[in-house]
Write a structure and sequence with these properties.
The chain has 66 residues and is mainly alpha-helical. Helices cover 67% and strands 9% of the residues. The chain has two helices and two strands. It holds the Pfam family DUF1656.
Length: 66
């Protein structure tokens, strides 16, 4: 079961942990996809990046819950 972390006297719930941990993973994936030229085939780049971030965070939440 995920635990709450305390950062600077404030508790960080598991969802916030996943959102913060997902950001560097998303940035790395975004950089790799740009280097490979995959994003030139995407119709709406901002929508794709938002969906990618949601998928990364959802995967982290599933892994953290296991």
């Amino acid at each position: 079961m995920p635990i709450d972390l305390e950062v600077g006297g404030a508790y960080l719930p598991p969802i916030a942990q996943a959102l913060l941990l997902g950001l560097p993973i998303f940035l790395l994936l975004d950089w790799v996809l740009r280097r490979l030229g995959v994003l030139q085939f995407v119709w709406h780049e901002a929508l794709f990046e938002g969906a990618l971030y949601v998928c990364v965070c959802a995967t982290l939440i599933l892994v953290m819950g296991a």
